[in-house]
Amino acid sequence: MEIKIFPNGIYGAITYLVYDKKTKEGALIDCTCDIDKIENFVKCENINLKYLLITHGHLDHVYCVSEFKEKFPTTQVLIHKDDMILIEQIPMQCSMMELEEIKIPCVDGLLGENSHNLTIGEKEIKIIHTNGHSKGGVCYLIDNVLFSGDTLFKDSIGRCDLFGGSMKEIEKSIKEKLFTLDENIIVYPGHGDDTTIGYEKKYNPYFGSNY
Fold it and tell me: Residue 204: CB partners within 8 Å, gap ≥ 6?
């Protein structure tokens, strides 16, 4: 599995492109910036983008979805069902952040934790519902890599003071769902540097065992 990172999106959000080198099937995780760079890379590598997987519905993670969909109309845009309310509130989110209003992204399908049959090549994409930062926040686990959105960061966690946020729920999501994963799993968050489950279990200042 190959991973291409597109950093420096709006508010520092990161877009990840994951693809199978053999079959050329791929998935984009969040869509924050650099549509032209993404398009050029996909065409250069001849990647068949099957999915655009949204970790949660906050504006910085879906800012370029509509623009992306225009360039890749056959790619399925998928989000957890509990965050559709945030997608519907995109105009309000733009207003709150004092940004020019963007189109409400077109969503092709709704996910639940038991959604299945999402694959790229021979790799299964596991959906882990990790509410707490938002009601429908999810992480995507592919092989030994976790794309954690704004649930878990290196040395931090997602804020819980926005609509749908809950400190109690994010604690439960991280402790019961993420910290029970293999400690060697690499974590690619929605902002900032990558980390590992093992590191965060020890050193995360919110829930790590050393604190």
Answer: 152, 155, 156, 157, 211
Taking a C-beta distance cutoff of 8 angstroms, is the pair 179, 197 a contact? yes
Taking the whole predicted model, whether its pTM rises above 0.85 is answered as: yes
Tell me the torsion sign for CA atoms 186, 16, 77, 32: positive
- CA distances to 10, 114, 150 from 191, in Å: 10, 26, 7
| Residue 208 resides in a domain | no
Give yes or no for a contact between 207 and 176, defined as CB atoms under 8 angstroms apart. no
**pLDDT for 12:** 92
Domain span at 192? 2-203
Total structural domains in the chain? 1
pLDDT at position 68, please? 93
Is residue 179 domain-resident? yes
pLDDT tens across 164-207, in order? 889 999 999 999 999 999 999 999 999 999 999 999 999 999 98
Cα 152–Cα 183–Cα 121 angle in degrees, nearest 5: 80
Q: What is the structure's pLDDT at 100?
A: 82
Residue 48 is assigned to a structural domain of this protein: yes
| Calpha distance 136→67 (Å, rounded) | 23
CATH number of the domain that residue 122 is part of:
3.60.15.10
The band of 30, judged by pLDDT with boundaries at 50, 70 and 90, is very high
Is residue 211 a part of any domain in this protein?
Answer: no
Q: Which tokens go with 120?
A: 């790229």
The strand pair at 76-80 and 48-53 is best described as parallel
Scan for tokens 């293999």, then name that residue: 182
